[in-house]
Every structure is written in structure tokens, then in C-alpha cells.
Write a structure and sequence with these properties.
The protein is mainly α. The protein is built from 3 helices and no strands. Helix 1 packs antiparallel against helix 2, helix 1 packs parallel to helix 3 and helix 2 packs across helix 3. Keywords: Membrane, Transmembrane, Transmembrane helix.
């Protein structure tokens, strides 16, 4: 029965990592965070933190 819990934990960590692919930590960072702490805690950090903003090359020089 314990192997099923580990499989669910691993896939939950992979899912959290996939959801965090466009953030400052990236997919690997959130995967490791969810493995070290737990997937719900990493998911909480994912929801609270902001996504990485992409710089639009056309808009970055408009302030000049």
C-alpha cells in the first residue's frame, strides 16, 4: 500500500513542477520544492508568487 502513496506523491510533484514552468524557479525548482516539502506546500508557493514577466522587445524602449 505504501508504494501507491509514493507514486501519487511523485506524480503530484511532477504536476506542480509542470505548473511552475513559467515562474522564477522553473519546473525543476518547483519539482524539487515539492519533493523536499510537499506538493500542497509547493502549490501554495506557486499560487502566491508571481509569474515571470516576459519582456516584449517592442515595448522595452518606449520609456526612452
Amino acid at each position: 500500500m505504501n508504494i501507491y502513496i509514493l507514486i501519487i506523491y511523485f506524480f503530484a510533484s511532477v504536476l506542480v513542477g509542470y505548473m511552475g514552468r513559467n515562474t522564477f524557479a522553473g519546473a525543476v525548482g518547483y519539482f524539487l520544492l515539492s519533493c523536499i516539502f510537499s506538493p500542497p506546500i509547493a502549490l501554495f508557493f506557486l499560487i502566491v508568487t508571481n509569474k515571470k514577466s516576459r519582456i516584449d522587445p517592442d515595448k522595452k524602449n518606449q520609456d526612452l
